[in-house]
């Protein structure tokens, strides 16, 4: 599948019709899902010809996939969970509504770790998604289906969602671009809540320009989300430029356990940026080591509150013939999968009697310190921070499933920007033994245009 | 006696049962053991935050000031954005009411043995 800009040109000139694009997508999906180890990016898809495709709009006729924790009226929304069996949302998420208004064709709902909790797309009741670059490996997660759908050439772009790195980490593992916008940039209305102070809708695409285009369509204030900002999304003309930029490199993101192949690709990327006129400056984000703990305390606490609504009354397929209301709640909620149960019980533990709110408050303070680290670096004249996206390339399916705590480490470089609410983007910087490696760029709040300009500059420099 | 407030304290099977009761989740015996193991190992991986030096935060707002302001939408009647009739969202619907499974504990007729198990 070509990038959106060239598809749009071909559509405009009449060289191809929208149905041709859908046929190409269907063919790519058939290839992806063939063989003994299907990639399985979608929970539901519809790639058949459509008579109602709009002829106008920034994304007219462009197929886009949507992570299955984002509400759509024409597909069920499952969150990869048994508990939402049979649920179809009565409304579109705001981001989906804006895609459709721009002419995009929503072609399917992508697989994810149940409720977005996971880093491998192995925790879905609909089965694992495989990495298109090596089907024995995970695509990352939780937006693994969206990353795999883009990497397998089925769609040029997909919506994902992030709490602690669920767009950037799978983007890195699958060799695509993944953007987490500033917290508040995109409405969360219709994004099923995991941890509300961290959740954000993000974009996966093949190129920085495509990610920026889709982002420009979905961003903006929405009265259905009181945390969505009224700020205008700054214009980004699609051109990259590194000349005169200052790139900060934090030592905390290059620890001893960093994969040597990832380290050398990061060094090579920094040399390319320097050759394009960027100044590389060592910086420090000293509270980085607190981030994973602060993240899991806050996310666990917020998840245990948010997921209370899945009780068989408000949401969730009711348990059959419960003798008491308590049984109704408990038997309905018994359908959560293992990782969701772990996170809810972790959050319940941290918030329960005997702890007061001490752990949560300390985690919020740690979060403020992590956030302040970024403020100091950007105030010192650094335009963007460059780091590896993950400590190593994609791991094998099943490698971490028996030891949930070890899985949490794959998010160590993505969680800090999530806590700080700053925009961050992962883009492919090369391959280690055939596996894609992602580099991460982080900018100050609301600085998406700067982030895109620098990312596009690096993308070009690496060609 | 262990201090339940201690960060790295093990989460034993009784703790898991108590947490599951609070969270309203029915667990099987095998799940109780694996959750006890998993939660204990997760809490050991996470760092204790007890001794955090927070002096740097003195006098600062807890989050980005822009995010503190609550935005309200105009208090005006507007069409609902629900795409399908509400009646389609319920498992069943009769005479303007949702009908739900009968729960014997809440139903005097069922308790005296006269009720049907439907609606």
Structural overview:
The complex is a heterodimer of chains A (463) and B (119). In chain A, 35% of the residues lie in helices and 14% in strands. Chain A starts with a helix and ends with a helix. Chain A has helices at 4-13, 18-32, 94-101, 144-151, 168-174, 208-218, 260-275, 291-306, 325-333, 338-351, 358-379, 404-407, 415-420, 448-461; strands spanning 42-45, 63-67, 105-110, 157-162, 177-180, 200-205, 246-250, 279-283, 384-388, 424-432, 435-442. In chain A, α7 (260-275) links the parallel β7 and β8 (279-283). Chain A contains 14 helices and eleven strands. In chain A, α4 (144-151) packs parallel to α5, α8 (291-306) packs across α10 (338-351) and α8 crosses α11 (358-379). With 463 residues, chain A is α/β, with parallel strands linked by helices. Chain B is built from three helices and two strands. Chain B is flat, with a radius of gyration of 25 Å. In chain B, 26% of the residues lie in helices and 3% in strands. With 119 residues, chain B is mostly helical. Chain B has a two-stranded antiparallel ribbon with strand order 1-2. The longest helix of chain B is centred in the N-terminal third of the chain and has 17 residues, at 29-45. Classes of the chains: A alpha/beta (463), B mainly alpha (119). At the A-B interface, α8, α9, α10, α11 and α12 of A face α1 and α2 of B.
């Amino acid at each position: 599948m070509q990038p959106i800009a060239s598809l749009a040109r071909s559509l405009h000139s009449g060289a191809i019709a929208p149905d041709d694009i859908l046929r190409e997508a269907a063919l790519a999906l058939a290839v992806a899902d063939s063989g003994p180890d299907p990639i399985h990016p979608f929970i539901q898809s519809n790639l058949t010809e459509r008579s109602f495709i709009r002829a106008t709009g920034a994304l007219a006729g462009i197929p886009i996939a949507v992570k299955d924790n984002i509400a759509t009226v024409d597909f069920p929304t499952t969150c990869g969970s048994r508990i939402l069996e049979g649920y179809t949302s009565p409304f579109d998420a705001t981001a989906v509504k804006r895609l459709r208004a721009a002419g995009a064709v929503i072609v399917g709902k992508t697989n994810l770790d149940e409720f977005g909790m996971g880093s491998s797309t192995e925790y879905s009741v609909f089965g694992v998604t495989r990495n298109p670059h090596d089907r024995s490996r995970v695509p990352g997660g939780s937006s693994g289906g969206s990353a795999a759908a883009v990497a397998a050439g089925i769609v040029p772009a997909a919506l994902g969602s992030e709490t602690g790195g669920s767009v950037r980490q799978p983007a890195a593992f699958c060799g695509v671009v993944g953007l987490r916008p500033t917290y508040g940039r995109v409405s969360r209305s219709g994004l099923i809540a995991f941890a509300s102070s961290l959740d954000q809708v993000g974009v996966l695409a093949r190129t920085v320009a495509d990610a920026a285009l889709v982002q420009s369509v979905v961003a903006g204030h929405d009265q259905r989300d009181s945390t969505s900002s009224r700020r205008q999304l700054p214009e980004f003309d699609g051109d990259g430029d590194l000349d005169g930029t200052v790139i900060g490199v934090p030592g905390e993101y290059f620890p001893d356990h960093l994969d040597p192949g990832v380290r050398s690709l990061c060094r090579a990327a920094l040399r390319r940026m320097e050759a394009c006129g960027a100044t590389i400056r060592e910086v420090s984000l000293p509270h980085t080591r607190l981030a994973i703990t602060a993240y899991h305390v806050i996310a666990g606490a917020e998840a245990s509150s948010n997921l209370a609504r899945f009780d068989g009354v408000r949401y969730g397929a009711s348990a059959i013939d419960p003798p008491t209301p308590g049984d109704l709640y408990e038997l309905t909620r018994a359908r959560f999968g293992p990782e969701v149960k772990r996170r809810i019980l972790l959050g319940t533990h941290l918030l329960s009697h005997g702890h007061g709110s001490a752990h949560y408050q300390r985690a919020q303070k740690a979060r403020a310190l992590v956030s302040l680290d970024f403020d100091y670096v950007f105030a010192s004249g650094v335009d963007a921070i460059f780091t590896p996206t993950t400590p190593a390339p994609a791991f094998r399916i099943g490698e971490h499933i028996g030891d949930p705590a070890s899985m949490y480490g794959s998010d160590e470089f993505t969680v800090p920007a999530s806590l700080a609410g700053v925009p961050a983007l992962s883009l492919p910087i090369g391959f280690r033994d055939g596996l894609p490696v992602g580099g991460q760029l982080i900018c100050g709040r609301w600085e998406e245009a700067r982030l895109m300009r620098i990312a596009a500059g690096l993308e070009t420099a690496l060609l | 006696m262990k201090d339940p407030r201690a960060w790295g304290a093990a989460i034993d099977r009784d703790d898991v049962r108590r947490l599951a009761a609070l969270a309203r989740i029915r667990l099987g015996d095998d799940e109780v053991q694996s959750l006890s193991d998993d939660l204990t190992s997760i809490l050991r991986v996470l760092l204790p935050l007890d001794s955090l030096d927070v002096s740097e935060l003195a006098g600062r707002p807890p989050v980005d000031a822009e995010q503190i302001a609550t935005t309200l939408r105009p208090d005006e009647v507007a069409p609902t954005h629900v795409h399908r009739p509400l009646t389609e969202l319920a498992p069943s619907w009769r005479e303007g009411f949702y009908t739900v499974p009968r729960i014997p504990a809440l139903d005097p007729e069922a308790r005296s043995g006269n009720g049907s198990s439907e609606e």
